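#struct-help
A.M.: can someone run this one for me? Single chain, 96 residues.
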Amino acid sequence: MTPEAFKLSLSAIQPTAGMNEHLQALWYDAKGQWETAHNIIQDITDRQAAWIHAYLHRKEGDSWNADYWYNRAGRMRPSCSLEEEWTTILQDLLGK
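D.P.: on it. Structure tokens below:
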């Protein structure tokens, strides 16, 4: 899947079949469903999930919790916009 195809999928009611949990979390976040995105990603233990988890808490405004998850992801909290970070995460997940 390309970033463009992923963004086009946002017009659908549900994520594309076969979309992994990391992408589903970003998909639901983009649809304004923060809680669903958080519920999907919170129990996954890899670094990409920790990055998404950090991003979600940054978006929520919980900097302390976000910094905890950025640390778990091996990253620092970025100074870019949330939209830019979302795009960077998407590109990383898609290998682009």
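A.M.: thanks! The radius of gyration is 12 Å.
D.P.: also worth noting: Residues 47-60 form the longest helix (14 residues).
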